[in-house]
Each structure stands twice: as structure tokens, then as C-alpha cells.
Specification:
The chain has 1254 residues and is of the alpha/beta class. Helix content is 52%, strand content 14%. Residues 365-573, 1110-1236 form the G-protein coupled receptors family 3 profile domain.
Amino acid sequence: MTRKRLCFFLLLPLIFSHCKAKETLYIGGLFGIDTSGGGWNSAGTIPAIQMAIDEINNNTEILKDYHLQLLIKDSKCNVGEAVRGTLEYISSGKPKIMFLGPGCSKATMPVAEAIHYWNIVQIGFSNSSPLLSSKAVFPLYFRTNPSERFTNLGRIAILRRFNWKKVAIMQQNNDVFTGISNSLVDLLSAANITVLAYESFKDHPRFALENLKRKDARIIFAFFYPDEHYITFCETPQELYAEYLERLKNSGYSENTFASYGYDAAWTCALTLNASIDVLGKQNFKLNEFNYSHPNMSKVFVDIMKRISFAGMSGQVKFDSGKVPVDGLRIEEKLEGVDPGVLWFVIAVSILGVLMAIGFLIFNLELWIVMIGFSLGFGAMFSKTWRVHVIFLNTKTTKRVIIRDRQLFSMVAVLLLIDVIILVTWQIVDPLTSKVENLTLQVTLEDDTGIQPYITMCTCENITIWLACIYVFKGLLLLFGAYLAWETRKVHILALNDSKLIGLSLYNVIIPCILVIPILGVVADQPTIHFSLSSFLTIFCTSFTLSLVFVPKIMFLRTADGNSVSTATKSATATGSTIEGGQMSSKRLFFFLLLPLIFSHCKAKKTLYIGGLFGIDTSGGGWNSAGIIPAVQMAIDEINNSTEILKDYHLQLLIKDSQCNVGEAVRRTLEYISSGRPKIMFLSPGCSKAAMPVAEAIHYWNIVQIGFSNSSPLLSSKAVFPLYFRTNPSEKFSNLGRIAILRRFNWKKVAILQQNNDVFTGISNSLIDMLGATNITVLAYESFKDHPKIAIENLKRKDARIIFAFFYQDQHYITFCEAFKKGMYGPKYVWILFSGRLQDNWWKVQSPLVDCTPEEVRKGLSNNIGTAELKLSPVSGPTKFGKTPQELYTEYLERLNNSGYSENTFASYGYDAAWTCALTLNASINVLEKQNFKLNEFNYSLPNVSKVFVDIMKRISFAGMTGQVKFDSNHDRNTQRRVAFYDMEKDTLEEDSNSVYLWDGGKVPVDGLRIEEKLEGVDPGVLWFVIAVSILGVLMAIAFLIFNVYNQNISWLHTYLRGGCTVRLRQRARKLFLELWIAMIGFSLGFGAMFSKTWRVHVIFLNAKTTKRIVDPLTNKVENLTLQVSQEDDTGIQPYVTKCTCENIMIWLPCIYLYKGLLLLFGAYLAWETRKVHIPALNDSKLIGSSVYNVIIPCILVFPILGVVADRPTIHFSLSSFLTIFCTSFTLSLVFVPKVDPASASKTKEENARETEE
């Protein structure tokens, strides 16, 4: 048994070497699982990723010493949830070495834009937006699925395949689709394919479809939800996919197109980590030691991932360089800091100097305390020398001079007081600020990239003056010290006199400064050298002075008699008087009795922290809101100094720079939440695009957020941003003011031109809804990415005159330069600008973006109306806080001058936002006390507290710097806004009495050609003349009818003839299809009577006409004639005529003409055949021939003319009436007049015969 145990224990090391526990590496997964609120569901990719993770963990060659564990959080395809999940991953548990997901692009972008600050590599598997290809914005983001940029290449290949050269794009307003469309536009331009239209829409594509139809767009790229289509360029291995489907059945999720890409993403992660083991091992680092402060580690991952290549489930997995053709030099800023080696060396030397000073302090405590004063050195030395000078060189008195240590302290205190006065005055009058100064640009021509080095300098506006004052003061002090040293040079008491040492110290300070300070000015742009020289100067001077003063004293005290030294010292510093102990005791007793009263008035206030996010450094692009900070701080100071607001609390504003950038805003928000004391409220980022992801996520931590310059209408959605308020008006209300302008000038037709941006898209969509509700026509809705050339051409083509322009200031130069080039300027154009963020007279600055002069840009701007926020309340009375808005703004400007920031239009809204926060917190104190809660106990897990804040803020109302501050149901500011004066509550536009509109051309432009429709009818005189003649013809036909009835022996066929002619005469008064029926029936009755043998054809014809009426009915159609335009006043008359027509009129009329022509030919044939029958009562052949001639010749002459004058109703009516009346009347007369005489003669003979018979 003993041997077995011994053998077992000997084998233990071998067993443990094989059973070594693996270290766990955590991967943070974000998937859209519950997407019931909208968005794309990526839960179906989880089984594929877990399958890959299991294969990796079971593999003996990949990550042998590590175990991968996939963590899963639901991002819901929602920005807020994705940001929340990211923060939870980062702030809790073990570090996550990599991230997978989220599933949809819109949730991925803010995460990828912020996550690189924690040095985490992120791998996407179903994010196709081309925007994610930007390495400047998403430096640590990779994806295993193809970008839509490459899909766009496939789309262009389709166009080439079918030789399509003209296309259009229609997209739903969405960051993803906008990115796809913009990428496609660039590629189409490079391929010389024309983009006829680029239309976007929010909820309904009605306007977009109308524009596409108007532009005759045939080939249309369509990007919108819910029918997303993906092009797959590779096949998946069937075995792996079959295994995925088996796992899918057990997961409860639905099959997902991107599952194979998720599988490959997991393997990409594992292979990257595996390949990094050796690299990191050389740096003495292991994967399980990963944390968020190792940028070198993420750099290793990125370098490996760029080179990775393997056969995955979706094909060969490898990544491009991330480089796309650039449009110019890409400049990356780089902070030129101090070399770490030099820094640590200086720190080490400084520590040695401090230790040396501490040693000397321990050696001679009394003398060291006396030396504490000005600059911890020279003040003490000079005061001590001054004492020697007074004691030993004062010849004016013979009395004993006693100078105590406290007198020396007083001298040093005076020097310190002078220092304090200078520094405090400096800070108040001209405070120091951090200034960024760019150094020489470092360019790499190979890849068109550049690094812009910059340094930060602590400076102010008048720093030269302040430094000169300090140098003069210190120089005078040094000169005074030199004078004292010179005067006391002959006092030979070493323990008392430091004159020689002071002289050497002065030399030690002045000479190095004279040598080094000029060099520091030369090397100001080289931080390492500058820091090294300045540190050397400081350390050398202080260490040398300390050594020079104290080393000789140490040597002296070791060799001399300590008692004699002590005696000599005491004789020079003995006190001349004493203080009675009883008096001191009574004073101390009185002091302690007063302590409770003092502490009762000095009760410490509890600090409440407000997280402020402002766009300060916006050199990377975006709107700067730093100028609002002084106004907010001014309000905070007033609140803290108030005895009525938050009496037991002290507000402290924390400031972080969001840079008007989504990633920075998310990063700073996470820093606020994850570190320090809880922030009870947030004052939001200055620009809307940075505010939206913060507002969408922050409610998960129950933090109320107050905006002061975010105008996007999208932020009004309480479903998405439930805890967001804003003191500035939403652009939704600005749009009401814009519509009031349209009503003021009676403009009914407008156009919209916007830059592709979420903020401007939200404004445009809100405006379109309001325009539709007020029956104002939107002629065009054009958007653009970089250049508005196509959009300007479309606006000009549609004759848009009143144009809403929504874009950033740099695009104003480009847009109005292009308008000038296209000739789209002059008195008939009006641009309604988004001018709240524009500088005054912005066009007067020559922009490098355009080749137009400022004068040409101004000319392209034509007439313009700017809409902007009210800077101050229009009410002149005092605000709630006692001062008028004008007085507050004057105080703001004073603070602004000391801040180094630029004036900001929204400063007054920032002031009101701070007071809104304070008044809400103050009103909540009593409510929360009833719940046994105090404001300083706030934390992020208290939804009831945020609910209290929201309920109070909804009801809040006070007179602020910008007017009456109150909120509507969407938490938007409800107040006045000035265009002239637009009152949002009354929906009225009130102009000042001195308002003057200076229109180019001297008159109000119109919104387009004012067209008045005019029906071109028949001249009344001609109409009544034709009616009169027609009546005479009808009377003539009736007379012939009576004649025919009276003379019974005349053929009944003549009755038909008269009826046909009568009907033809009556047709002139008929309209629409009756005219055609009357003409055809009259023709058939008239000529059918003469051609009696054609009666069967007549019956067949009537049946044919009935068929036409049923199959293709005649309708009344309006046809516009030539527009008559007056250029002077932009008015026009649109003449139009009404026609009776049908869809196949050109088929039916030839059929009728052919049929009637055959009838005429048949009649002519009969007349020709019976021409030799000489019985006048029976034979009408000659009359038939004359009638046919009477019809054919006029028709041949008149019909072509009728086609030419179809747009002249009077002439057309006159000719057609003449043709009808002439033919029918001539035919009646030709047939009946010759029969009148024979009929009368026959009647006379019959009467005579009857009389004879009687």
C-alpha cells in the first residue's frame, strides 16, 4: 500500500500537467432577439456561432490553454439597448476580449464608434452598411459578411450587362439605406451612369414615386423596409449548414440568412486569438490578462486579423485593407507628448530632490519652517539675511534690536500675499485656458494619409503682460536679496550669515535662466526637449540651492560646539515679552464656546452632480456648442448662491467634450455612468446627431436628460426618448413658423433641398406632413450627400421658386455657388434658410470649397429668409430670477470673454436648461421626502425618482432668459419663436412695425407661374347665327314634309330623305356622342332614302354603332392649347378645349368613313346604271350624282382644314357647321324643288278631271 501511495504521489505532477485548467476568455455577444418593437431579428445566428464556439473549445490545436465562452445580450436592433448592453459588458464582470454583433447596422454603428476607446475589437456578421467601412470612425471594427459597397459593384455589373445608362434611386430615410445609396451614387458617377433622380421618403413614397414618374425613370434601385434583399456570392458547406439546422430546431429561433457569417465570425475571433498567443508571449503577456487599457493588445489583434485567411462556412474569409479611394489628403491628429523615458527619468530625479529636501527638513526643522514662504526658498533666505543686516549694520540706534521669527514669517507672508493677489487677479481678468496648436503636417504620399501633430499649451490672451509682471516682481526680489548679501558680506557668524551662499544661489538661478529660457521659446513645438530643459532648469536650481545652503551647515555642526551655536542663535532671536497664560486660556475658552454657532452656519451642503456634454473640439466636423458653457455655469453659480433654491444642496456641473460625434458622446456617457458619484441629470450634447443615441439609451439608467440646442423633430418621440426634455424649440415648431411665412406671402408651391443627415431628414419629413395638411404643393424634395449639382438641376427643371434649404454652413457655399453657375438666381427665387447656426454675413468669407467669389455666392443666394431661434425673450420685464434677459446676456458676454469660447445663439437656452434642472430638483425635495428619500441618495436603479422628475418637469413654468419656459406632452419647449414673431400657441405671425422686406426686383416673388385656365369656346355670334340658319333649314325640311304628305303620290322614300336632312340640321346643337349618332343616322336616312336598296346596310350599321358605344365609349376630354405667358408678372393663361373622343377613335372613324364612302360609291353606281331611264318621276340618277358630288367635294376640302384648326373652336365650329348645313340644305333643295312644279300641275289636272266627272 505504501508503495502504491508513493507511486501515486510521484505521478501527480504528470497528471496535473495534463489536467491543467483552461483559462476562460469571454466574448461579448449582442443579438437582436426580441425585435417586436421593429428591426431586423438576428437571433437565428446564435446557434451557428455557438456551434463554432463548441468546435473551437473541442479543438486541440486552437487555443489549447484557453476556453471561449460566448455571452449573449439582447440588443433588440435598437440603439439604446445596444449601448446599454455594451456598458453592462464593460462595467461588470471579467473583461470581454472581443465583441460579436449587434445584428443590425443601425445598432452597431454607435457601439463600433465608441468601443475602440476601450481597445476592444468588434466583429460583425450581418452589418452591411457601407458607412461601417470607415476606419477613421470605426478603427477596430471587422465584418465577415460583405459590405453593401461590394454589393453595389454587383448592381453596377447588372447595369453593364443590360447596357442601362440612366437609373434612379428611391430609398427610405434611414442611416443604413442612406449609406448604401451614397456609396452607389459615387460608384455610378465613376462608371459614367446618369442618376436621373435620387428620391427619399419617410413614411409614404407618394411624392418620390410622382417625381420618378415625372422624370421617366425606368431602372430604379429601391432600398427600404421590410423587403430587404441580399445577394449571396458564395455557397455554404452542406454538412455544417445541416448541423446548424439541427441546432436551430432546438433553439426556438428562426433560420437566418447570415448564420454562416456568424459561424465564420466566431472562427475569425478564435484564429486571431490563437495567432496572437506567441506574439503576446514575447511581450510577457497572456490572453487571460487582457483588460480595457491595453491598446497594444488590440493593435496585435487588428494586425493579425488583417492578414487572416481561411475557408469558412460562407467561403474564403479574408479582409480588405479598409482602404477606399480618397478624395484628398486624410489628416489624422496626433498629440505630441513627452517621451515616456524622459518623463520617468525626470520623475525619478524629482523624487530624489524631494527626498533630499525632506532630509534637510528633518535635520533643521525650525530653519526649514522659516524658509517656507515665497518659492519655498529665496523669501526665507532673504528675510534671514535682512535680520542680520538690521542687527549688525543698523547704526542709527544703540539699543538692542530683537527680531523674532514671527516677523520673518510676516515678511514671507507679505511676499506670498503679493503672489496670491497677482495670480487671483490673473485668473479673474484673463484666465488660463488650454489651447491646441497644430505643428507641421506630416504627409505620406504613398497612401494619401497625413498626421497632424498638435500640442496643448496653457495660455491666455495677455500672457506676455502677466509673465512680465511676475518676472519684474521676482527680479526685484532677487535684486533686493543681492543687495542684502552684499551689505552683510562682512558679518562672519557662519550660523547666521548666508550672504555668500545667497550670492552663489542667485548666480545659480540667473545664469541658467538666461541660457535656457530663450532656448525654451525655440523648442516650444518639441515637447520632449522643452520638458527636459525646463525640468533640468527647475531641478538643478532648487537642488543646487538646497545643497549650497545646507551642506556647509551640516559640516559646521559636525565640527563646531553645538552649545555655542545654540547660544548665539538664541541671543539673536530671544523674545522681548511674554503672554499671560490666563488671558490665553480665556480666549481659547471663548473660541470653543463659539464653535457650535460657527458650525451651525457652516453646515456642509450635499453635492449633486450634473453631467454636461458639449461639442468643444469640433475640428473633426460638426457644430460647436462650447459657447453655451459660460451661460450654463452662470446659472449654476446663481443657483448655488441662492438661499431659496436647493438650500441644502450644491450643484456641480461636470463637463466632457462630445465633439459633436456619436462615438465620443456614447463614450463620455459611459464614463459618467461607470465612474464617480451618480449624475442626477444630464445636460445633453450640443448637436442632435450626438444627442440621439445618448437619449435613446440613458433612460435605462433612469437619468433625465435636458437638451438646449437639439432641434431635430425625431427627438420628440417619447416612445424612443422617454426621459428627454429640451428648452429650445423643436424644428417641428420652426416648421409652423415657416408655414406662417408661406401664408404671409401667399406661396402655394414650394420645394425642399436637404443634405443627407438624420437631423435634416427629420426636419424635412415633419415639414412635408405639415405642408400636406395646409394644401401647399411640394414640387420637389431633393437630397444630396456631398454636392448638390443634380439636385439643383432638378429644382430648376421643375421651376421651383420658393425653396427650403436645410444643410450645414460649408454646404451653403457649395449650393449657392452651384445655383449661380446654373443660372438659378434672380428676383423670382426665394431661399428659406436654416440660419440659426450660421454666422452673420457668412458669404463674405472666401471659401476654399468653391471657385466662386463671395459676390457670386451672394448672387446665387438671391432673396432669402432666415429662420432662427430667439436669442432672448421678447418680453422686456424681469425673469424669475430678478434680472432682465438683456442684463443676463450682458453678464454672459462678460463671462464669455474670459472663457476663450465663441458666442453661441443657444447660450440663453443653456441657461434656462440649468434653471429647469434646479427648479425640478427643488420641487422634488418634498415629494421624495414623503418617500423617505433625499436627492443626494440618487442612484441609477431608482425609476420612481426619475418619474417624479418627469412629472414635475411637465408642469414646470417660469420666465427664463428666452421667455416663458414650459413643455408640451412630447417634452418639447412651447414658447415663442421669431421669424417676424411667430407665436406657437396662437399660430400667428406678428411683424414688427419697422419690419421691411428688401426684395430683389422690388416686389414679392411669386411661387411659380400663375396660370389661369380659359375655355376656348365658340364665339356667341357665330353660335347664334348657326342656330338661326339651322332652324331655317329645319323649317324648310318640315315644309317639304308637309308638301310630301299633301301630295301622297310622292315616294315615301322622300320622307326619309327629309327626315335625314332635318336630323343633320339639328345636330349642330348636340354634344358628345349624340353628335356622332345624329350625323350617322342623318346620313343614313338621307342617302339611304335615295339608295333604297341599301336599307339592309343601314340596319347593320346601326348595330355596329351600338357595339362601339359599349366597347369604347366616347368621353369628354380636356386638351390644353399653347400657354400664353407674361414674363413681367409671372402670370399665364392656359387655354383649353373640350373634345369628344375615346381611346381608339382613330380606328372607329376610319371604319365609319369607309362604310359611308362605300354607301356613296354604291349610290353613284346606281345613278350611273339608271342614267338612261327617262321617267323623271322614277329616276333621280342625276339628282343623286349632284348630291354625291355636293357631299364629297366639300368634305375633301373642309376635313383637312378642320384638323388644322382643331385648337380654334370658333373656326372649327363655323367650318363644320357650314359643311353640314350646306350639304343637307343643298341636297333637300336639289331633290324637292324640281318636284314642286310637277306635283302642283298633277294636282290641278286631277281636280279638273273630278269636276268633269261630276
